[in-house]
Amino acid sequence: MSSSQSRVRRPRSRLWPARSAGALLVLFAVSVLVFAATEAAPGDAATARLGPQAPADAVAALRDRLGLDRPAPLRYLDWFGHAVRGDFGASYASGRPVGEVIADRFGNSLVLGLAATAVLVPLAVGLGLWAGLRAGRRGDRLVSGTALGLAAVPEFVTGALLMAVFAAGLGWLPAVSLLGAGQGPLDEPSVLVLPVITLVSVCLAQNLRLVRAGVAEAARSPAVEAARLNGVPESRVALRYVLPAGLGPAVPMLARSVAYLLGGALVAESLFGYPGIAALLVDATAARDVPVVQAVALLGAAVAVAANLFADLAVPLLDPVQRRPR
Fold this sequence. Notes:
Elements: H1 3-13, H2 15-40, H3 45-50, H4 56-66, H5 72-83, H6 98-132, H7 138-152, H8 155-169, H9 190-219, H10 222-229, H11 234-247, H12 251-262, H13 266-272, H14 277-286, H15 290-318, H16 320-323
């Protein structure tokens, strides 16, 4: 291998460790911010559980039992040390291990997020590719205009309209996504339909437009023009040359959308009464259940950091120059 080739390859070989180290530092910073935010909130778990009229000695005893009277830095170190081992303590509200409380809801959010992702990614990529290859034509204007209209409608408005039409009006789907005891969303797939459509409608617009813009630019590149002049079939040009280059600008936004979907979509879960992780966060915040709030926030940050790390590592692989053998 020549020295010039070595200089080109070496930065790529260090991409994983460098980006992974950066992701871990981000998670550490997020853990500090999460702990500081819960500390800065008014009141604490003791007063929330006993009520504002509780005797001062009872509140003090509960604070001592929960360890709330210890200095904040010591409590952070103790919490973070256990969190990296997967131990987030016990819920103040129920006394159950936080991991069990989260597991009950995270599975529901994961199913909802995966279902929405399975619809979002093919739609955004497929429609973006189709519109980008027809940039400036009637089909492109129709798709881009529809995407712009979807982006202008708030998520709760979209969900409310879907509920009014398909649940209250036509009666085709349940208005709320409540699950019975011992049931999961896959036992009642109909409860996923309206939340999934709501989430996809919100995330589709930006992703579709980014894919469309990237494809339109890639379709005008010299490499694509050369492939067409050499008689390469148009379908192969689109899939082999245009799509990978066009996806590069859209991958970070797709990653953020997937992280949002998998991490629990607050508006959709609240609107449809879906028992997911975002709804758990709302309930825990209202109850001042600090261990659950901290764990859910850190879990959401971990999902977002992992998705962005994947995007950072995937973008260079989509670059034709980076993928070309050396």
